[in-house]
Amino acid sequence: MIKEIAQGLGLTLRHFFKKNVTLQYPKEMRNFHPRFRGAVGMVRDQETGKERCVGCGLCAAVCPSNCLTVVPGTDDVGLRNAKIYLYDMGRCVFCGMCVEVCPELALVMTHEFELSVYDRSQLILDAGAMLRLSDREKERTGESIEEPGFPAVTDAPSTFLKHNQLDPRIQRGKFQSHQPALGTLPYGYPMKYEEYLKKIREGKPLVQGTLPPNFQEIQNKYLPEDSRVPMPKFVENQADTAAEVRIKHMTVGDINKVESHKYYDEDGQGSKKRVELGKGEWADKK
Amino acid sequence: MFSLALFDVVNATEARVNAPEEPVIWFLQTFVTLFIIMNVVMVIMAYQTWAERKVMALAQQRFGPMRTGPIGLLQPIADAVKLLNKEYIVPRDADKTLFFFAPIIAFIPALAAFAVIPWGDATGEGLFGGWIRPIIANLNMGILYLLALSSIGVYGIVMSGYTSGNKYATLGSIRSSAQVVSYELTMGLGLMGTLIMAGSLNLNDVVIAQQNTMWYIIPQFFGFIVYAISGIAETNRNPFDLPEAESELVAGYHLEYGAMHFGMVYLGEYINMNVIAATVATLYLGGWAAPASFLEFIPGPIWLFLKFAFFLFIYYWIRVTLPRFRYDQLMGFCWKVLFPIALANVAITAVFKYLGITFGWWG
Amino acid sequence: MQNVMNPVGGDNFQEKGDKRMRLSLGPHHPSTHGVLQVIVDLEGETVVRCDPVPGYLHRGTEKLAENKYYTQIIPLTDRLDYLSPFNNNLSYTMAVEKLVGIEVPERAQWIRLILSELQRIASHLIWFGTHVMDIGAITPFLWAARDRETIMDIFEMCSGARLTLSYTRIGGLMSDVPPGFNEKVHEFTELFHKALKDYNKVVSKNPIFMSRTQGVGVITAEQAIQYGLTGPSLRGSGVEWDLRKHEPYMYYDQLDFEIPLGSTGDSYDRYLVRMEEMEQSNRIIQQALAKLPSKGPVKADDPKIVLPPKELSMSRAEEMQRHFYQVIHGFPAPVGECYFGLEGPKGELGFYIISDGSPRPYRLKIRAPSYVNLQALPLMTEGRMIADVITCIGTIDIVLGEVDR
User: Average pLDDT, whole number, for chain A?
Assistant: First the structure.
């Protein structure tokens, strides 16, 4: 009886002289394995500097916790993107399925794990905030993320890769959807992005001849008043109203509601003077 | 009973202390001594919590408190500030008066017990012409005083549990009363051998007797074991921490306490540990006396501190290693194991003393 | 003062003058392992009636699963027994694989086997730590957490998550394990062998621990079978039943390991059985590492169910179409019913799926071992002391996420 107790005491005594295994967390940080699944970020397209997302909505379809909302659209230069992309981190379970299915490699699991905020509305990120998340990864590692890491591709890389390190079949520029929607149509061959931008700045029509109405409508936006092709009225309205209706049902309205909560209204006039609490970096700053 | 005992204590004090020629100065001197010793005890107690956490952390390969000050040295102060700032909450079903006074009753006797622990040679005059004395009250019956005070401390625990209006706390205080009463017996019996050997109830006399022969831990080894184990049980520490068994009774008798009242229960427990450790150091490890003559340049208080710090370390060490007894096993252990050992120890020591047999090599 | 024994009034006592006290252990209690409520009637310190009340953590997993595609259910299973998520993933995935009849590549199976055994060790480590902590020793918990950390690191290395892995997919794994996996697992098995000796030294032979567990919570072999216990709780009573041996799945029939059995069916026997199981799992991992093929696919080659690899889907239009179709519509499972159970750390963890031919299960039933084992709590505790209730909750190793589902 005494022998066993003495053995136990001896063992604890030996542990007094062993090295500590814990870390002083806020001061020291453990090394994450490259595959660590933190908050979902968006990958920047190196040519445009914008998100690579084309708004196909597969991520929203696969998400088991329904934390993604995607409304497809086109951006100001006519590239396909997500008109609205909302990522509710409060619902997210970090399973990585969205990254796994993304056909554009536009999403990435960043190593961001300190996700606490003072207000739940700050947990709802839009595309810009998600881009900033992956930018933080860039600041941390000193290298830009050009292609996502785990688990976007089948042989998931152990670290974030540059795109030329990836399988050539999935390198950027080998497939159509990254090319400007307008430039690809009439020529059947992608136009260089610089040329495309130049044409737009000069106000020249990109395409000669007849276009489908929705492309025509987009092209009209970038043409001078006089050279616009007249459009049937309903096309424009239809697109706009549809988007408006969807936006109304989105969480965007809710965010504004939370922001104009009386706690934040200091002067009582409803001006949205946001009190920056903690790190407000992910706050929705639209 | 107790008032009578205390009356005797007062009488004994007057008899023992060098008859004060000027009572006012004598009172002031006692007050200064009291002030200094109590403060030292409180500081030791505060850092004891820190030390316990550090020792436990080391055994578990972690750091323990690190954020307040260098290696967490300001942690006790931070704890105290936190406790003082908290709201004092009285449960709906509590007996409000007793609930308020229970922690105080637990706390004060524990602190008062330090009055009879000698920090140096109590027969001497002390520093600065008697302004700082090594002992607050050099009682003839110091050990009885200690035992009496530790009995009073139980009332605080029982009251705090019973008046909280909480079933866990009630269970805890029931356990506590049974446990402490049983272990008090073995504790007293464990001490008896030492007293028989020293022939005095005065703690200073025991130390001097040890200086003349040798530390009583050797001849009174079984007495030491019984006293140390009963002391751990008396202060409700692991592996005898049934009254506050965290995994069964959540926190036991002090479940409903918050703020500084919790602090006082907590402090009372730690000071009790200190008292047990200090008595062990005094009665078995030679007290303030240096272990060898060439080490006598180090003053007595430091020796006492080192000895009882060592015993406290054993306390912590046992706490990190051993699991907890069950209630029936605890009582069985007391009455079936410790009690016979203590009785036999007393009997054998008494017989040897009566026959005048010495063991040769310890004189 | 008369309020003290009966603060709530009325219902607290069965009858007036009855000396019983009704104590509600939990749902907020440090050692009910989550949010279990156990209502015990006490006479002094003796338990005369014990009534576990599960349900505080009910999340409706089975109902949620009816509205999700087969792949989307995998993250739900993580949250059942959150101390062994990989086994949950695996059991569910293998049930679906049995339903749709898909063959999993060899390498994927071996990796699954290794991870499953690692997960068993991790789960047992937490059980060990908490069980011993309930009995009062605090240090072994921290040591167990330290060793479990290494397993968590291995999981993080493979799947990116430490607890909610979601690492399996129907037909294989999410992705192959990264380089360095074998070395790290091998390192762990050697380290763990030593650590286990330490645990045995500080706890197994400790007289206080032995007196707290021996003869406490006795379940005889007949009772264990009657109550439907599985896993170590059953084997502690001396019944030899281990699905890895008796209904081998994956490659367990190719491995050499033993099933530890208890004799008396008390808490101490169950303790020893689990400690020995860790040792055996360690052996299994070492053998499996040697047999793990160094190369090979980790996803089945079944275009109807498994998503195409990105290299194909991003370079061929038809593969991209298939990718979109599968993600949006899921894969329809054949009409039928199917049950698959594996030997989880807590017992037989089974998934029963009824399919009506749609891509979502018509009904998903989870046979959670913790829930079944919890039934034995009154049997073990009635007539004993309140401290034994805590020991018994620890010894059946329940996880409330699984009990309440």
Answer: 67
Question: pTM, whole model, 2 decimals?
Answer: 0.80
- Nearest residue on chain C to A101, judged by CA atoms? C327
Sign, CA torsion B72/B73/B74/B78: positive
- Collapsing DSSP states into helix, strand and coil, what is residue C265? coil
Query: Phi first, then psi: what are they for B257, rounded to 5°?
Result: -85, 145
ipTM of the prediction: 0.80
Distance from CA of C122 to the nearest CA of B (A): 18
* Mean pLDDT within A143-167: 62
pLDDT of residue C124: 92
Kindly state whether residue C128 falls inside one of the protein's structural domains.
Answer: yes
Mean pLDDT of all residues belonging to chain C: 86
Mean pLDDT value across residues A240-258 = 49
What average pLDDT does this structure show over A175-180?
41
Number of separate domains in chain C: 1
Give yes or no for a contact between A179 and A77, defined as CB atoms under 8 angstroms apart.
no
Q: What is the pLDDT of residues C365-374, one digit of tens each?
A: 999 899 998 8
What is residue C118's predicted lDDT score, i.e. its pLDDT? Answer: 92
The dotted CATH code for A40-165 is 3.30.70.3270
Chain C interface test: which of A20, A32, A169, A176 (most C C-beta within 10 Å): A169
In whole angstroms, give the CA distance from residue C332 to residue C338: 15
Residues A27-49 have a mean pLDDT of: 78
CA distance C75 to chain A (A): 7
Residue among A21, A150, A158 minimizing CB distance to C146: A21
Smallest CA–CA distance, residue C78 to chain A, in Å, is 10
Q: How many angstroms separate the CA atoms of B252 and B245, rounded?
A: 6
Element (H, E) at A31: none
Tell me which residue in C75, C307, C311 faces A64 most closely, judged by beta carbons: C75
- Which residues 58-77 of B are in CB contact (within 8 Å) with C? 59-62
What span, in angstroms and rounded, lies between the C-alpha atoms of C372 and B280?
52
State residue A211's pLDDT score.
Answer: 53
Q: Is residue C33 part of a domain?
A: no
Chains with 3+ CB–CB pairs under 8 A to B are A, C
Instruction: Give a yes or no: residue C113 inside a domain.
Output: yes
Q: Is C32 within the bounds of a domain?
A: no
CATH number at residue C338: 1.10.645.10
* pLDDT tens readout for residues B203-230: 888 888 887 777 887 778 888 888 888 8
For residue C393, give the 3-state DSSP assignment: helix
- Quickly tell me which residue has 């200090």 as its tokens: B278
Query: Cβ A35–C149 below 8 Å, yes or no?
Result: no
Quick one: DSSP state of residue B359?
Answer: -
What was the pLDDT predicted at B165? 80
Interface list for chain C against chain B, based on CB atoms closer than 8 Å:
1, 3-5, 7, 21, 23, 29-31, 45, 132-139, 142-143, 146, 202-203, 206, 208-209, 211-212, 385-388, 390
How far is it, in rounded angstroms, from Cα C66 to Cα C290?
40
Interface with chain C: mutation pick from A5, A23, A37, highest number of C CBs within 10 Å: A37
Predicted confidence at residue C3, as pLDDT, reads: 41
What is the residue type of C213? T
Cα-Cα-Cα-Cα torsion C262, C266, C272, C274, nearest 10 degrees, comes to 90
Which parts of chain C register pLDDT below 50?
A: 1-14
Range of the domain at C392: 61-404
Q: Which residues of A touch C146 (CB under 8 A)?
A: 21
Dist CA A230 CA B220 (whole Å): 111
pLDDT on residue B26: 75
Nearest CA in chain A to C315: A169
Q: How far apart are CA B288 and CA B276, in angstroms?
A: 15
Q: What is the pLDDT of residue A203?
A: 65
Residue A276 pLDDT exceeds 50: no
Domain ranges within chain A, ordered by starting residue: 40-165
Collapsing DSSP to helix, strand or coil, C172 comes out as strand
